[in-house]
């Protein structure tokens, strides 16, 4: 769009008058809500939201990212077959450096076979390739590489938009606190060059948040990050500002709520990151082992709890080869 056209559109918007219904319709058209798989399905999420999946290791955080990525990159419909995906692109930034692409492909195959009800055919392989083209992967080994990658994302998304006709819809970061303790042990981060300013631990997150804000303003997208938690006896507790609730949910949550009282998880990310996050869900392992239908083995159960916004129930889920499944 030329500068004259942009100025005319801006002037028209300023001088225009619209009803609340028209305003909501315009907002939903430009930033529609995304139907994500469980347990992220409880809250309507859309471009501009920053979702933090927090939990100790292991608590299936990366599995939730992969499950969500599969649902996004699968097409909605292809050759008259409804696959139930969103047909959106996903940009995955791996800071843990443990991402298993074979696991992504395996879950994609399961979803495709589930739709067709038979083993993969040539058409299914084409759907698999089409979906994988929607998935972009970046691996960073330290904070300097992360900062450099964020600086290049705008250009990368612009190129993909020109070549594929679509921009980024979903940005995933696994895990945002991966370099926290290494950076904390260092007095500063050398960025090279005599005239370069050294970045402290606090400044790193400030630059990360600033770059993400700029990226999201130019390319409206949903951001989902994982964060490993640590157990603490002092400091800022995730739940300290929230009241407890009576037992509720899709199962008897009374014992689960008691188990969540101690230990609690200590917040270690700086305030600038905490204020950047718009939604937070806490996941953790459970002592329960659940036998799923048509399966002779017991699966470890996990529990998810929405903290921001606060929901008065828990979800219990298991992870299998085909993906994440809620337990009723």
UniProtKB/TrEMBL annotation:
PROSITE patterns registered for this protein in UniProt: RECA_2
GO CC annotation terms, alphabetical: Rad51B-Rad51C-Rad51D-XRCC2 complex; replication fork
A Gene Ontology BP annotation from the UniProt entry: double-strand break repair via homologous recombination
Molecular function in Gene Ontology: ATP binding; ATP-dependent DNA damage sensor activity; DNA binding
InterPro entries the UniProt entry points to: P-loop_NTPase, RecA_ATP-bd, XRCC2
Domain (RecA family profile): residue spans on this chain: 25-230
PANTHER family: DNA REPAIR PROTEIN XRCC2
Protein name, per record: RecA family profile 1 domain-containing protein
């Amino acid at each position: 769009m030329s500068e004259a056209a942009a100025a005319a559109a801006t002037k028209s918007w300023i001088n225009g008058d619209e009803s609340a219904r028209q305003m909501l319709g315009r907002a939903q058209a430009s930033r529609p809500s995304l139907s994500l798989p469980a347990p992220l399905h409880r809250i309507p999420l859309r471009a501009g939201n920053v979702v933090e999946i927090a939990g100790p290791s292991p608590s299936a955080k990366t599995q939730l990212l992969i499950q969500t990525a599969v649902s996004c990159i699968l097409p909605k419909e292809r050759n008259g077959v409804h696959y139930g995906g969103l047909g959106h692109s996903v940009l995955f930034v791996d800071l843990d450096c443990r991402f298993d692409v074979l696991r992504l492909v395996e879950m994609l195959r399961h979803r495709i076979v589930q739709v067709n009800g038979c083993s993969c055919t040539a058409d299914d392989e084409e759907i698999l390739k089409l979906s994988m083209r929607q998935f972009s992967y970046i691996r960073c080994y330290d904070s300097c590489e992360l900062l450099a990658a964020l600086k290049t994302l705008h250009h990368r998304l612009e190129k993909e938009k020109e070549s594929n006709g679509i921009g980024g819809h979903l940005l995933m970061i696994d895990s945002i606190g991966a370099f926290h303790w290494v950076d904390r042990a260092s007095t500063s981060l050398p960025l090279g060059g005599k005239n370069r300013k050294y970045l402290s631990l606090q400044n790193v997150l400030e630059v990360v948040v600033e770059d993400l804000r700029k990226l999201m303003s130019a390319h409206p997208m949903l951001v989902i990050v994982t964060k490993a938690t640590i157990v603490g006896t002092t400091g800022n507790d995730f739940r300290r500002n929230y009241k407890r609730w009576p037992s509720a949910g899709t199962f008897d949550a009374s014992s689960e709520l008691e188990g969540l009282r101690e230990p609690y998880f200590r917040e270690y990310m700086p305030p600038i990151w905490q204020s950047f996050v718009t939604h937070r869900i806490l996941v953790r392992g459970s002592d329960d082992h659940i036998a799923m239908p048509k399966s002779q083995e017991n699966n470890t159960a996990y529990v998810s709890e929405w903290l921001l916004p606060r929901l008065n129930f828990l979800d219990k889920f298991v992870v299998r080869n085909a993906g994440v499944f809620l337990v009723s």
